[in-house]
Amino acid sequence: MMTGWAPGVESPAALGSLLDRRAYLADEGLATACFLALRMGRPLFLEGEAGVGKTELAKTLAAVLEVPLIRLQCHEGLDASQALYDWDFPRQILHLKAAESAGAGDVAELEAELYDRRFLIARPLLRALETECVLLVDEIDRADDEFEAFLLEVLSDFSISVPELGTIRARTPPAVVITSNRTREVHDALKRRCLYHWLDHPSYEREVEIIRRRLPAASERLAGRVARAVRALRTEDLLKPPGVAETLDWTEALLALGARDLDPAAAALTLGAVLKHREDQDRIRRSLGALLAPSPNGS
Amino acid sequence: MRDFVETAVGFARTLRAAGVAADPERAHTLMAALEHLDVLDARDVYWAGRVTLCSRRDDLAVYDRVFAAYFGGERAGPARRPPARVTVTRRVAEPGPGGAGGRRERPVASTASRAEVLRRRDVSRLTAAERDQVNRMIALLAAGRAERPSRRLRPARRGRPDPARTVREALRRGGEITAVRRRAPGSRARRAVLIVDVSGSMAPYADALLRLAHAVVRREPRATEVFTVGTRLTRITGELRTRDPDAAMAAASAAIPDWSGGTRLGEELKEFLDAFGQRGTARGAFVVIASDGWERGDTARLSREMARLSRLAYRVIWVNPHKGHAGYEPLTAGMRAALPHVDHFVAGHSLAAYEELAEVLAGGEPPGGARGSTSRRGRSGLVG
């Protein structure tokens, strides 16, 4: 039925280097997970702390596959008319009135016209079935559990049935990435359809590499100091430990101030880019000197 | 080398025995995945197994262990769970019937008034028969459902126009719009989080409190979370979803590793907030903490975490069984640290007290307002 994505990509490592070329550094596990998801036509279920690059992965994947990214941001109360499709009621009424004044006769024919594809507004899930794309279902745990049920339906055979119109089936099933921040347990039936991957914070070397790739203006030294400081912050038992997104924000803030190095003065000025709770800032501000002190094994 | 299908299936089975939900369907997915990879490469097999057989973060450590054991040549031991501890109820000698005079038998009370007496009795001082009856009454305790506005729109008499229903109606009448249909936000159950202290000093009440938790879970399974604290935090929501109260209790006791140990309330609370609460479990929820406040750890930490909890939760309710006893004063250091951040401080020693708690969970006020002068600053006015 499906041929799978990226037939030219031979191995996880090859996919990894394609992602790498788009400045997304994936480790072996993530590359394998993505490779399998594309090959097997299965959604990739990504969990991990906020800011480890879950959403970014979907964007990069779309760039690598050279297809658009369609994003469905989940929220409470998300329902079928916002996620799947909706009828364009004003246009239906207009059409009806126009037909009436033109003196159209056949009621059955008129009704069939009203439920035509052109009066159907495609929301993200339907749009994803109608185009070749990467579909990102972001923060699924925010949606109600009823929503999972119809997402599961869409993902199991990549089709949507519209009662008035019939079944719309994807010619090419989209590559699907689902992310969750684990605020609640997602239903097992949905997870079973997916390949599961837990995305961790990157290692020190990888994080330095990420900073250098994303922000070429940052020197090796600055990138190293920032990565080290962020690693230290992550062990500090904060309300919100910084993710990669914060690492990049922080480096960018330092660059904007023209800082060449991460000294306590520059760090204090830019702390808001990396710590976003007042309690966390208060705590760290007091121990900033110790935190930034170069470690004995050099930096 | 063994046949690869046999190996994959055997691996999934071993993983299942170790507590990971690696069902046959997932084993099948693993085999499909291996078709795309190098079966002889240990790294490929490791990652293929990990993405197909695991489904939550907690699985990963077990997976690593089982993978090493299985492909390292030895079978992983199956036993992970500690032996089940079914009963926590402690029988305390029943106080003799009052008025020790020459009466040979107690007057036969009507069922209703006996039930009334039982409602007020301390659950730690019941006979086995009375306990059975109280347990049945707890199971029947119908906590009303507290609601909060939902974002989902439902048909309503007034509200915003509902184009879908209006047009459908119009089409049925040949295109004539006779009435505008409307819709308005509906309501959903407000989440309740129950945190039950199962340390030694709470042992006489833990069973009844967990049964109460079961009753709440049964009523709103999707909007209730239950945790136990002692020396560690355990999530037992899944165990309590079992319909039968006794079976649910057995499952929960098997899952709780730290019955009757000490209490490190502050640390546990922090763990709860880090792992669940701040992500969303506690946000806008009723959070009920059932504990006597015997904190063995640092009370400054408890105070800090309670402050954090009170900023996240909709209402914080503290249930202390000792509060029902005459002359009780919140003197333990833990209790004193926690009280400034608590909205309602209620007793938790008798069925009547549980009924009051159910009332509060349904969005009502406990009788006598926020009892015990513990209404949180500035919040009391909000309670409707």
From TrEMBL, chain A:
Top-level lineage group: Bacteria
Record Pfam families: AAA_5
MF GO annotations: ATP binding; ATP hydrolysis activity
Start and end residues of each AAA+ ATPase domain: 40-209
InterPro entries in the record: AAA+_ATPase, ATPase_dyneun-rel_AAA, CbbQ/NirQ/NorQ/GpvN, P-loop_NTPase
Gene3D superfamilies: P-loop containing nucleotide triphosphate hydrolases
Signal peptide, first to last residue: none
Coiled-coil stretches: none
SUPFAM superfamilies named among the record's database cross-references: P-loop containing nucleoside triphosphate hydrolases (SSF52540)
Cited PANTHER family: MAGNESIUM-CHELATASE SUBUNIT CHLD, MOXR FAMILY PROTEIN
Protein name: MoxR family ATPase
